[in-house]
Amino acid sequence: MTISSTQAIPQTSAIPEHVAIIMDGNGRWATRRHLPRTAGHAKGVQAVRRVVEACGRRGVRYLTLFAFSSENWRRPAEEVSLLMRLFVQALEREVGKLDGQGVRLRVIGDLSPFEPRLRDLIEQAQARTAHNDRLHLSVCANYGGRWDILQATRRMLADNPGLVQTPERIDEATLSRYLSMAWAPEPDLFIRTGGEQRISNYLIWQLAYTELFFTDRYWPDFGAQELEEAFEWYRTRERRFGRTSAQVDAADKR
Ligand code: FPP
């Protein structure tokens, strides 16, 4: 069972155990260079590679990337289809390397609208890396935080129909067991690149006490050094989880 930040005080350390990233700014990175937006996404895949490697080296245990939100279907069909092709290529090309690096890959979200070929590749990649435990890499695809809470509620009630008559028995622990990342601790550090300061329907349950780091840098320009800067900022944060500063100091001295 993972610790809920609203139910208990989680242990924290200098390097965040779980980093969640919104990789924003691919399109603007490309437009600035008079390139098609899709060139920015292709460059973004290289940034994913750099960040996965850096997280592995720095001892991060969980890295969760927002690759495609449930709202991204609203983009031009050509861009959506390029993004799908990039996922397929990345899965085909990178899974061996990820496996060699001890990375366990999971794809999180409602995968039902994806092409069968992409779904097969996802399943194969997940199965191939299932024995790894060094870094848990989750790629959120067709994911939305509200979707996650709804699917969790539906599955909880399907498993426990009696709860409809006794809703007072539903607590955080009961529901959170059905969230799609129930096996992971809540993110310690959230990073959003590209200058926007929004959560954009990402992991909205799990980010309750996460430290939020925003940078103007576009995702294709993000790498090990920028990750280190985010870690440095994270170390300056006092994680109070609802307590006073004095209580935090006293707990740290114990
Ligand atoms: C946001 O930039 C980025 C996306 C919607 C897609 C992210 C995808 C990748 C980095 C490539 C594939 C990833 C994996 C895991 C293989 P934007 O297009 O919204 O940029 P903009 O705000 O500048 O328009």
Automatic annotation (TrEMBL):
A cellular component term, taken from the record's GO annotations: cytosol
Positions annotated to bind Mg(2+): D24, E211
Binding locations of substrate: 25-29, 37, 41, 69-71, 73, 75, 192, 198-200
Cofactor details (free text): Binds 2 magnesium ions per subunit.
GO molecular function: ditrans,polycis-undecaprenyl-diphosphate synthase [(2E,6E)-farnesyl-diphosphate specific] activity; magnesium ion binding
E.C. code: 2.5.1.-
PROSITE patterns, alphabetized: UPP_SYNTHASE
Active site: D24, N72
Cofactor(s) in the UniProt record: Mg(2+)
Keywords, in A-Z order: Magnesium, Metal-binding, Transferase
GO BP term, pick one: polyprenol biosynthetic process
InterPro entries per the UniProt record, alphabetical: UPP_synth-like, UPP_synth-like_CS, UPP_synth-like_sf
Purpose of the protein: Catalyzes the condensation of isopentenyl diphosphate (IPP) with allylic pyrophosphates generating different type of terpenoids.
Assembly: Homodimer.
Family, per entry: Belongs to the UPP synthase family.
Protein's name in the database: Isoprenyl transferase
Organism: Bordetella flabilis
Lineage: Bacteria, Pseudomonadati, Pseudomonadota, Betaproteobacteria, Burkholderiales
